[in-house]
Request: fold
Amino acid sequence: MNNTETNDNRLTHNLFEHFEEEIPSSDFTKKTMSMVLTEWSKQPAATSRFSITDYIWHITTGIAIILAIVFYPSQLGLDSDSHLMQTVTAMAGQIDALLGNIQPVIWSIVAAGILLRLLDNILRLPRKI
Amino acid sequence: MRNHHEQNIIKDVLKGDVSAFSQIVENHKQMVFTLAFNILKNREDAEEAAQDTFVKAYKSLAQFKGDSSLSTWLYRIVYHTSISMMRQRKNTGADIDNPAIASVIGEYPGNGERLDNLDRKKILKEALLKLDEDDAFVVLLYYYKEHSIEEISTITSLGISNIKVKLHRARKKLHEILSKVMEQEPDLLIF
Reply:
C-alpha cells in the first residue's frame, strides 16, 4: 500500500461528483414518512403524569370534611339535634380527646395538601393515571 | 450550518413534530440509497433498505447524541441494515446477470474516443457494482464522501487495518476492470 498516497493525490474528486444513484420511487419520502408515522402511532399514549399530591389531596380533603362535620355541624347547616348528629357529636368529644395535641398536626397536613394541590396545578408535576 | 439546522430538526421531532423528520429523509435519501445499492446490487432491495434505515433512525433518534454528524450516524445504520439484508437474502456479491449491473463497459471498446463525463461516471458506477459489498461501501465513503479511515471504521465497525486492506483491494480490482477500456481515460485509472 505504499502507493496509496500517490494514488489518492491523483484522485480527481469530480469523478464522484453527483455520484448518487437515483431512487426508483419518485415518492420515496412520502412512503418512508408513512412508515415513520406508523411507528409513531404505535408509541404508547403520552405517559400520564403521576403526582403524589393527588393522594395527599384526597386524604387531606377527606380528613377536612370529617373534621368539619364533627366539630362544626351547625356551621355546615347540619341538624345537630338529629340522632345521627348527636352520635357524631358524641364521637367528636372522643376524637378530640384522642387527637389531643396532634390536632394542629392534622390541620397542618390538611393545609399542606391544599397547598400542594395548588402548586401541582401550577407546576404540572408528572402524574400517572 | 447544516449540522445546526439538523440539530433543530431533531429537537422538533423529539418534541413530537414527527413531520419534521421528512426533512432528514429528503436531505439524506440519495446517499443512503446509493450506499445500500452498492451493497445489495439491487434497486428494489436498496430502496427497502433505505426506508428501513430511516425508520430505524426515527425509532432511535432519541439516542443520537450528536457526537458524530447525522449523516455518519445514518451511514452506519444503512451499512448494517444492508449487510443484514444481504445475508438474509444470500446475496453473494456482484451478479453479472443482474440488470442493475449489466455491463456497459463492453460497449466501450477503447477506440480512442474520449468519453463524456456522464459516460465516465456510468462506467465507474458499474465498476463499483462489481466489487464486494464492503469494498464498494468503503470506496464510496472514502472517495465520494471523503470520510477518514477512522470515521469509516466507526461507521462499519471494521478495523482500520481491515479498511485499508479493502481500499487497496478495491483499487486494484477497479484498475483491472477499468484498464481494459480506459486507456484513453487515464483519470479513471487512478485506482
